[in-house]
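Subject: Sanity check before I submit

Could someone independently write out the structure tokens for this chain? I want to compare against mine line by line before I put it in a report. The sequence has 164 residues.
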Amino acid sequence: MSAQKLPSADIVKILTHIPHRYPFLLIDRMEACEPGQWVRVIKNVSAQEWFFAGMPAERRTMPQLLVVEALAQSSGALCHYSGLMRHVAKPIVFFAGIDKCRFGAEVCPGDQLVLECKLVRSMRDVVKMSARASVAGAMVAELQLTAVIRDMDSSVALQAAQQA
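---
Independent answer below. Compare away.
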């Protein structure tokens, strides 16, 4: 039985579910989602992005690592909307791994970056996803992501114990 598609969500709604904030928030809108299956997220790339500061206008391209981070943030939205975090009191999704990463086209100011993540497998609190970023249909990045869902309170306690 296939899940029902969700309506789009703007950045205000997304911010209630992910911890990222400016300047490291790299998604603008969830365009579509089928919980437990896939999500499509949009990032509108502006010439005013912080990562373009100091670059000559003709050399402005979004760093590939930030494209990967945008895909990771999109995968967090998929985890949330798929209900994978509902059993955790204060959930946080950690980017745990990347496999089979390939890069293609560049992302420039004025581009609309389309970020698509598909759920491959979820076992306990470990989630595997395939992800693709594109601009006007041209592949920018393709990869497989591994994410781990943890309780934010227990993660903070664990970090404090490790630093002591």
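---
OP: Matches mine. For the report I'm noting this point. The chain is about 20% helix and 40% strand.
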